[in-house]
Amino acid sequence: MIVAILNIDWQTLADALALGGIYALMAVGIGLVFGVLRLVNFAYGQLVMAGAYALAFGSEWNLPVWVSILFCFAVVLALSVAMDRLVFRPLRGHAPAVMLVATFAVAYLMQSVALLWFGSLGTIATSLAPLNRPWDIGGVEIRKIAIVTVLVAAACLVLLRLLLDRTSVGLHMRAASMDFLTARMLGVRANRVIGGAVLISGALAAVVAVMMTVQTPLVTPDFALRDTIVVLAGVVLGGMNRPVSATLGGFTIGFASGLLGGALPTGQSQYLDSFLFVAVILVLLVRPDGIFTRSRGGIERV
User: Fold this and answer.
1) How many whole angstroms separate alpha carbon 258 and alpha carbon 269?
2) pTM assigned to the model
3) Do 195 and 84 form a contact (C-beta atoms < 8 A)?
4) How many domains does the chain have?
5) Neighbours of 218 (CB within 10 A)
6) Is 234 part of a structural domain of the chain?
């Protein structure tokens, strides 16, 4: 009924699924760091931006695709570790507001460095273009990246659940997210737990960089900035304390954004974010803990 009213075709649905998958991946990384550190990392989008620039330069240097992707992962993981060691770890004992402001500062610092170093016009990553070619399925052109994104998002979530449930590092992450001080008293090594969460989150940011660069090859200093803000709203909408809830929230707001973006007339597309955030506010007034969350706590079992 809603699809018919909005005049949404199968092409729009396919694109919305792809965007939902990307936002779900971003939500997993953001939700994981929040679960362990109780930190909303506003600099997450700049990690994605750095990975996209790495892919763009891989294209300029005529590197093989797999080498460009490895270079992307190396850059993002190195920046994630540097961010934790130089900023988050020294401020770990301070008030949450201090760390929140620090993430803002890091985000705009990285954006300013990219602006000064690479310029405002941006650069284009072309090596991954074949993944953006469509398959004609029943008259609907579904891009390869749409299918890849949904499959990768589902696989990452399953692997994360296995990590949290079946490994000692995952058990320590869950314990630390529920009560960090008590977990440390019981022998949980804080730096190991936080380092693991940061690395996993960074790896997910690198995956997002690859997926987004395929669909939007023009890389600029504000690459992924708007997407990060929307995903943060989606994480809050779903429920920040559980990976599955945060992921579902990210997928929901990404899917809704894709549907509205395809359904709205071109002259009204500038109102897309207004519609999204009004909807988020209305939902949170009814379900302030998130629409996919039943209880409070840390990184809990589903």
Assistant:
1) 11
2) 0.85
3) yes
4) 1
5) 13
6) no
Mean pLDDT over the full length of the chain: 81
What count of residues does the chain have? Answer: 302
Outline where the chain has alpha helix (H): 2-5, 10-37, 44-60, 65-83, 96-118, 144-166, 168-178, 180-185, 190-215, 225-238, 243-263, 272-286
**Residue 281 pLDDT > 60, yes or no?**
yes
Token couple for 32: 């994981």
Residue 271 lies in a domain: no
Asked whether residue 180 is domain-assigned, the answer is yes
Report whether pLDDT(296) > 90: no
Dihedral-angle region of residue 142 (phi above 0 means left; psi in -120 to 50 means alpha; beta otherwise): beta
Q: How many CB atoms lie within 10 A of CB 13?
A: 18
Closest by CA position to 74, among listed 174, 203, 171 = 203
Q: Domain containing 154: what range?
A: 10-223
Let me know: does 251 contact 23? Beta carbons within 8 Å: yes
The answer to whether the beta carbons of residues 287 and 296 sit under 8 Å apart is no
Determine the distance from the C-alpha atom of residue 66 to the mean position of all C-alpha atoms in its chain, rounded to a whole number.
Answer: 22
From CA 106, how far away is CA 157, in angstroms rounded?
27
Tell me the β-bridge partners of 52.
none
> Who's near 106: CB < 8 A, 6+ residues apart?
43, 46, 83, 87
In tens, the pLDDT along 235-255 reads 888 877 666 788 888 888 998
